[in-house]
Design a protein that fits this description.
The chain has 335 residues and is an alpha+beta fold. Helices cover 35% and strands 16% of the residues. A five-stranded antiparallel beta sheet has the order 1-2-3-4-5, covered by helices on one side. It has a five-stranded mixed beta sheet with strand order 11-10-12-13-14. A four-stranded antiparallel beta sheet has the order 6-7-8-9.
């Protein structure tokens, strides 16, 4: 079976006119906006096979078969997947010889199959925004003092959990669904108090997202590059400087799902980890070695001590835009 990317299959299904094609062999009756005919795959006394011109899809209300043009050819003409794609591509005027069957697509398919075999896919529960809106919207002085502008914190919807004395921020998936709430303690002596610095208010489940990517995705795509920080604070600092193609991994080792997401973006990837993180770290290097096969990968290294060394644990965005620009200018490509 050949490998086709989702964009190609979607283009074929959208461009091939399903209603026009089936009208050549089936008698159809219009009901409202859709057309109906008798399903040839079972006894169908009342026409139950519907075709939607608007969506360019079919659905049989009796046997439950449904889908786009390619699926129709497979179900009703008995074609294999490759045969159906080839036939539909001709009708859709899509030249398959120009389609790139890249290693990227093969990798994503491999990851998807591996995940299906090793664990049940995790579905993040969608939270009602009213739960997050209950937290107080007010200036966060400590983050203002770090140089994060109020307009940026408003953009990222930063709030305060007064009961737990935490700064909180929402976690969204790429479709804009609220899937978690994360909080950072405001107690400076949190270690002495044995309090966690960060907490998730709900179960994280599978880490298959990057913090704030739902907001910055348009900039990532237009720039053809994503800069990965370890924290949302770094993302907001860069955003305030006009560097908006950023997201936070919330840690320095990525999951398979996060790597797959980066591959799917088809952009350059720049890692801007804190000064105490080595890109030679076993897990970090493993991530880089996988990613560099499928896209251009760069790392921002502080060889001149501009961030204060490993003990300072500063992020590339913590010491001002000039330092960030210098580190970005001399970023190293991973080969």
């Amino acid at each position: 079976m050949a490998t086709y990317d989702d964009d190609t299959l979607n283009q074929i299904n959208e461009n091939a006119n399903l209603l026009e094609y089936v009208s050549q062999t089936l008698e159809l009756e219009k009901r409202g906006d859709d057309y109906y005919g008798h399903c040839p795959l079972h006894t169908d006394l009342t026409a139950s096979l519907s075709f939607s011109p608007k969506e360019n899809r079919f659905y049989c209300f009796s046997c439950g078969r449904g889908g786009g043009f390619i699926k129709y050819l497979m179900e009703y003409e008995g074609l294999g997947f490759d045969e159906a794609v080839e036939k539909a591509s001709v009708l859709a005027n899509v030249d398959l010889t120009q389609v790139c069957h890249s290693e990227t697509i093969s990798y994503l398919k491999k990851v998807r199959v591996a995940m299906q075999k090793t664990r049940i896919p995790y579905v993040h529960p969608h939270l009602d925004y009213s739960e997050y809106a209950a937290y107080k919207k007010c200036p966060v002085k400590e983050w203002l003092n770090e140089g994060i502008e109020q307009r940026v914190m408003d953009k990222f919807d930063i709030r305060v959990d007064e009961r737990q004395n935490r700064i909180v921020y929402p976690v969204y998936d790429l479709n804009g669904n609220l899937i978690n709430i994360k909080g950072r303690t405001r107690y400076e002596n949190y270690k002495a108090l044995k309090l966690p610095k960060y907490i998730n208010y709900h179960s994280v489940g599978t880490m298959d997202y990057f913090q704030s990517l739902n907001l910055t995705l348009p900039d990532v795509k237009s720039d053809g590059e994503i800069i990965i920080f370890e924290s949302i604070k770094s993302v907001m600092k860069a955003y305030g400087w006009g560097i908006k193609n950023c997201a936070s991994a919330e840690k320095h080792s990525l999951t398979e799902e996060q790597i797959a997401l980066l591959v799917k973006l088809r952009t350059n990837v720049v890692f801007a980890y804190d000064s105490d993180i080595s890109y030679q770290d076993r897990e970090v290097k493993k991530n880089l070695d996988v990613l560099k096969v499928y896209t251009n990968v760069y790392v921002m290294e502080d060889k001149e001590g501009l961030l204060g060394g490993t003990d300072a644990k500063n992020a590339p965005a913590d010491c001002g835009k000039e330092v960030f620009d210098t580190l970005y200018q001399y970023k190293r490509k991973v080969v």
